[in-house]
Amino acid sequence: MTQPPADELYGRHRAVLPDWLTLYYDRPVEITHGEGRHVWDSEGNRYLDFFGGILTTMTAHALPEVTKAVSEQAGRIIHSSTLYLNRPMVELAERIAALSGIPDARVFFTTSGTEANDTALLLATAYRASNQILAMRNSYHGRSFSTVSVTGNRGWSPTSLSPLQTLYVHGGVRSRGPYAGLTDERFIEACVADLEDLLGHTRAPAALIAEPIQGVGGFTAPPDGLYAAFRRVLDRHGILWISDEVQTGWGRSGEHFWGWQAHAENGPPDMLTFAKGIGNGMSIGGVVARAEIMNCLDANSISTFGGSPVTMAAGLANLSYVLEHDLQGNARRVGGLLIERLRAIGACVDTVREVRGRGLMIGIELVRPSTGEAAPETAAAVLEAAREGGLLLGKGGGHNTSVLRIAPPLTLTVAEAEEGAAILEQALRGA
């Protein structure tokens, strides 16, 4: 059956969906199917996917192992809810608890990263009897009422109303801001001093929530060890540490399975949240926490769709594939080559201020060469040109959306990395 043209579907989209529901490209793309690291649109165009459904298609499009697990589970039962025992949910929880690094861990499944962070905030505020939260500048934690209120990125925070009192800390962005010119050691010292000073002016917060590598913020990160240094301060005040691993988890950074492990000197976080890649496109999110924190709620709760048998089967198959095929190692190897290739390109393009990242989580920050100001118009132009060349990218950034975000499936090959870099080089030179 012939698909209707994308332009016609776009008109229907605008007639029934919110104006604020973001779409990429001047002529939005309808993706109809995918295989491996490639997708096709309704007009038959083939693209190398360097964004993976916003870091969600972690292993590959139409991965046979995941497709088979979903199909077989759907043939048995699709839904039962958490009111009944659920074998796939228990099995996946056992594996994630063991991998988390958190002692005496408990796992609660949700349907998204937003809901996972919302749950972590609920647990922290209940456990600490405080509605004050520390968050990082330039952060993003979701689109619910509570998670928007701890998001330090104006472009993704549509309201200042909040159930929480949020205080923002320095440190998430290494190369901009008041401490950018310091060495890594001095940068950490300055951020810790800022945190100490902030805590001297406020009542006791419940928790610090932080992305080890800021995703929507443009793949920015502090020097290794910052959150370990923060942890010493937090522990003195009894403040919990929530590591938002929605984008950094499952080995995407190459060097570590979890982002918090770059800051592990003083132990694991009290809680970590996860989502996106674990389901390879299925709706899985969740929280891992020490038992005393997870069990602190004094009212009943369930999750109607969190921990669905179908999504849990997908998660089990996908996690097994990631571990058995050492995709963390592939992210380290192929990602390292790709970053070096992109840095070589960036050195010859005056709109590129910085190429940063780890593994297959790479950001290219674009600026106006004459002023050094963020250049969202250039980022938009490169996004369009790359699409014309057969490459799908993401965008992000703090004050302005001027960072190209690269996060392909972790099975990316060296040849595909080179192909994508060549397309991107042409797009950057022509923007």
Strand order across the largest sheet: 4-10-9-8-7-5-6
Runs in which pLDDT lies below 50 for 5 or more consecutive residues are none
Radius of gyration: 21 Å
Question: Which structural class best describes the helix and strand composition?
Answer: alpha/beta
Question: Could you give the order of the helices and strands?
Answer: HEEEHHHEHEHEHEHEEEHHHEEHEEEH
Q: Cα distance, first to last residue? A: 38 Å
Proportion of strand residues: 15-25%
User: How many strand segments?
Assistant: 15
* Number of helices, counting only DSSP H or I runs of 4 residues or more: 13
Global geometry? globular
What would you note in describing this structure?
This protein is α/β, with parallel strands linked by helices. The chain is built from 13 helices and 15 strands. A seven-stranded mixed beta sheet has the order 4-10-9-8-7-5-6, with helices on both faces. It has a four-stranded mixed beta sheet with strand order 1-2-3-13. The protein has a four-stranded antiparallel beta sheet with strand order 11-12-15-14, covered by helices on one side. α11 runs parallel beside α13 (414-430) and α12 packs across α13 (414-430). 52% of the residues are buried. The mean pLDDT is 96.
